[in-house]
Design a protein that fits this description.
3 domains; seven-stranded mixed beta sheet; six-stranded antiparallel beta sheet; disordered N terminus
């Protein structure tokens, strides 16, 4: 294990040694959180929440450094009462109030927390947040991944398990590299696309759990540092350089990689979007208006020029010419400019496309067709490509070292 990674784990343990560790101080509370664990922010907008667990559970109440523990087998409510917390039973009787923190801790092994009908592993921490509550799930890293990986990789079969393992290692690497990313905040990750969407027990799949368990502790590193393990759905034949897709620093392990036909089975390997001139003009106006903070109107579109492409084939520079002006757009933001013809809530599948312009007898643009390939930004691991390679017999470490160049796959714990 490298020095930098050892230091990272020691910092994580030291962070707990300076704070209250719920459930680790009383022998009667039998849920223990293994290291490494992750603190996941689930919500921070509710004023009251109903919590419990399968079977009985402990309610740890903290006020001014003093601890009281209650036990229950029925759901309880935790509510904000002016920047303090109170715990209420089903009859609306107050169990305790004026609290700084409440922790819900299942009793017994393999018992899950219950929140709004959903199951979660580990411990649930509740903190006051203004006039609302913060709900933070403290969970062992491997159990966290069981609620992250299934939505990312979908339902897979045994012959695709190496792709699931690769996804698990990529997700673990992302999580390990972002522990304590929010500094003094009491959480490490947000359960959203800002970090990784975490759905708890309800999305768990046996095959995915098996893949996570078989790769427990494995991460991807470059020169002893965790990599930024970007991934996307479908590369369309080739991934891309991070510096060409976004305004980010060039990274040795995020380079263009030829995927061949590995992701050709994806429904987004090829795609098509058709816009009328009026619709495409409206989309450009909406984007410019949002960017400039005022209503923008443009004259009819006369042409669309692709003036630069990345090594992976994605558009680097694009110009929309109108009767009176020209508007230039760059890199992955192009997907946000046009969005989809069929659904304005969705951005274009990718920025890798060709344009087909149809005109009337006078030469005026009537329709613009985008013939594209791929889904996502195109940086890092292609998930559908990983599945395709797994079907061909590739191992998870070989898949990862294919998409992330010059890296090591190593067991951290």
């Amino acid at each position: 294990m490298t020095f930098r990674i050892i230091v990272g784990l020691l910092l994580l343990v030291l962070a707990w040694s300076c704070a209250t560790v719920p459930g680790l101080r009383e022998e009667t509370v039998t849920t223990f959180i293994k290291v490494p664990f992750v603190r996941v922010l689930l919500e921070e907008n509710r004023e009251e929440v109903t919590l419990g667990a399968e079977g009985s559970f402990a309610i740890e109440c903290l006020r001014e450094g003093k601890q009281t523990i209650f036990y229950s087998s029925q759901l309880v409510q935790v509510a904000n009462e002016g920047e303090r917390l109170k715990v209420i039973n089903k009859n609306r009787d107050i169990i305790q109030d004026g609290l700084d923190e409440v922790n819900i801790i299942p009793r017994g092994n393999n018992k899950h927390l219950l929140l709004a009908g959903k199951g979660y592993r580990g411990i649930m921490k509740v903190l006051p947040y203004g006039r609302s509550l913060r709900l933070i799930n403290i969970v062992y890293m491997e159990d966290y991944l069981k609620g992250v990986v299934p939505p990312e990789i979908g339902k897979r079969t045994d012959d695709e398990i190496e792709a699931v393992k690769a996804q698990a290692v990529a997700a673990r690497t992302y999580a390990m590299s972002h522990l304590q990313q929010y500094g003094a905040e009491p959480y490490d990750m947000k359960s959203s696309i800002i970090d990784q969407l975490y759905e708890g027990v309800q999305v768990e799949e046996k095959l995915v759990n098996r893949a996570i368990e078989k790769t427990a502790g494995y991460v991807v590193t470059h020169h002893d540092d965790f990599i930024n393990a970007y991934y996307h759905s479908t590369c369309g034949g080739m991934t891309d350089d991070i510096a060409d897709v976004w305004d980010k620093t060039e990274t040795p392990y995020l380079k263009p990689v030829n995927d061949g036909d590995a992701c050709s089975w994806s429904k987004y390997y090829r795609w098509r979007e058709e816009f009328t001139e009026q619709l495409l003009r409206t989309r450009v106006e909406q984007y410019l208006s949002g960017e400039r903070g005022r209503d923008i109107s443009i004259s009819p579109i006369t042409d669309i020029l692709i003036t630069g492409r990345t090594a992976g084939g994605r558009i680097d520079r694009l110009t929309v010419k109108t009767e009176n002006d020209a508007y230039r757009f760059y890199k992955d933001r192009i997907r946000w400019v046009f969005k989809r013809a069929s659904n304005p809530e969705l951005i274009l599948p990718s920025s890798n496309f060709e344009t087909e312009i149809r005109r009337d007898n006078t030469g005026r643009v009537q329709k613009i067709i985008f013939n594209g390939r791929g889904y996502g930004h195109g940086v890092g691991m292609c998930q559908c490509g990983a599945i395709g390679l797994a079907r061909k017999g590739w191992s998870f470490d070989k898949i990862l070292q294919h998409y992330y160049t010059e890296v090591e796959v190593k067991k951290l714990y």
